[in-house]
Amino acid sequence: MQQQDIHNFLERYFTANESPILENSRGYLHVQLSIDLDKLLMNRPFYWHYLEKTGGTPNPMQMTLITNPEECSEDKKGEQVHFGSPRLHQIFQSVQQLGAYIRLFEQIPVGERMNSTALHPWLCLNAKISYQCDRKKDIVISLGLNLINGEIQDQFHDLLLTKDLTPKIPDFCFTLSPLITPRSGLSRLENTIRSIISQDDHQWAEDAQYRWDQDLRLLETFYEDMEEKPESYFLEIEALKDQYEPKININIINGGLFYLSSK
């Protein structure tokens, strides 16, 4: 994840959560947090508890983030964020707490708007596929389904990064009604994920099974002279299964409904 990607993500994150961006310049964001984001990010439980008890006027804090020190002017001060930084990790976690679903509209530049511009509904699903045995490999996929014509596009998140998105439908724009229901769309995307997995190379599972068999044979040599196997034998058998048995897990990260222009 590049620094510009982080900056773009934070812009959408604060906008979607009704936290006005007071200043947005190269590598720099100054934001007025909403009450909900203050509670999630600023670690002020006693303040909010006292305020709720006394009925006082909320005063959410502001947050200043530097997403790229090299691009940010020297007079700007704030908290640096990068992939893996505690603050960005906290924000990623808050996305799940706030809800794993979002609805956004493409902001059409005024000069490109006709009398009325149609926005097409796309259902986006971001998921993580985990291949797990004694080793682990994670694959993150992003799929988009056009709810009008059924087109499925991979790396959909990368496409969204190129768009200017807003939580409110722009003036002189209207949304097309989906011909495919979101429920049916999710089923189509689930089948696509299963197809991706079935077409993948699963030599890793065969290799894990081989290592499992090797360790099982070694374990048997330790207990081969015992007519009655002790409990430790069965515990070790189960431990080897937990360690080596190939598993495929699919974890839905988040999703959303995005209304985009036909371009």
Automatic annotation (TrEMBL):
InterPro entries: YqhG. It holds the Pfam family YqhG. It comes from the Bacteria. This is YqhG family protein. The lineage of its organism: Bacteria, Bacillati, Bacillota, Bacilli, Bacillales.
